Amino acid sequence: MKRRDFIEAAAMTLGVAAVSVKVGAENLLPDGKVGDLKVNPVLVSPGSDSITVVWMTEQPSAGWVEFGAGEKLDQKACPVHDGLIDANQTLFSVKLENLKPGTEYRYRVVAREVKNLQAYEVEYGSSIVSETLAFTTFSADKKDFSFVVLNDLHNNFGMIGRNLKFITEPHDFVVFNGDIIADVQDDAAAVRFLQAVSRFAGSIPMVFVRGNHEARGNFARRVKDYLSPQSNFYSGFSHGPAAFLVMDTGEDKPDRSAVFAGLDAFENYRTEQQQWLAEEVKKPYLKNAGFRIFFSHIPLYSNTRYNCLDGRAKWGAFLENIGIDLYLAGHTHQAAYIEAGSFGNPAPVAIGGGYKAEESTVMQIDVSEARIRVRTILNGEEIIQREIERKRKAE
What we know:
Layout: H1 3-9, E1 21-22, E2 33-34, E3 39-44, E4 51-68, E5 75-77, E6 80-81, E7 84-85, E8 87-96, E9 104-117, E10 122-129, E11 133-136, E12 145-150, H2 158-164, E13 173-177, H3 188-201, E14 206-209, H4 223-227, E15 235-239, E16 242-246, H5 266-280, H6 284-287, E17 291-295, H7 309-322, E18 326-329, E19 336-338, E20 349-351, E21 361-367, E22 371-378, E23 381-389
Parallel strand pairs: 2-10, 12-13, 13-14, 16-17, 17-18, 18-20
Antiparallel strand pairs: 1-5, 3-4, 4-5, 4-8, 4-9, 6-7, 9-10, 9-11, 12-21, 15-16, 19-20, 21-22, 22-23
Helix pairs in contact: 5-7
């Protein structure tokens, strides 16, 4: 196939996400076979009208996502940057946009090896088609749901499968609340993490919160491409009766610390987030939510000395003013539930454990129109259970 033919067959758009186009059954390449990629599809950054699909190939390739709201995969989205469809690479991400809230979509990834890419001639190799998977977009109409939180794995990815086995109820998404990979020198740990989560995250999306250890090492500046493409490390979203804020506390030491060799600027970065937060708290999804839940890797308040004081100074007043109902954090490696007011915290703070088997926890958060239930599970035993009653009147 000539390069021109491939481009004309693909969905074209500016930016990083493709405009969807109608495709038929003939879209499946004749030589395409269902098989495993280096990283099978992983869903990240979920929302009510969009979601991002990440995958990796063994060989330099081109690829796209075929998807649809019914039985037919009648839409296609390609990864595009600056007018060029991504090709001759192994890491891909595509943002599916203009989706309908609360709707199940089926999708698959198609990857075609690029053996030689020249100015006017492209030589393609074999192609792989992932299995067809399904996800459901978030919806404000959902009355109750659950999500799961893991943190501080420090490359101990075996804890993911072990801890998720303790969760028997269905959950709509999984939050990885920082220090999941540690001191990243290359992409090896990020790839292993994606391979581990692809066992469930092809259908149950993940939300990634950066920790201080993901900000360290030679590869730290590429982590977002793998774990949080298409968006910042800070964001807001909603689902059911809850609104969520994800903030990036950055490093746990001052920028001037000698170990950073003058290469960190997290104090300005937290100010950038302060400015973003000042506008975000005005938005209807937050103002009208029954519950407001806050994520950061380093707690702003805790029963230890490991707090992000700069984040507290810059964000705390906004969070207090909008009435955050629950903070979810990690970093201390000590599972805890800190009642509101214990350390100046305007809302309860639930903190997960560490990376060793004897301290690694999983939290299940159940949200209904009336209350939030927090459960922290350690080695299959529920060590913390609390309920937070709704303070705002239901619409």
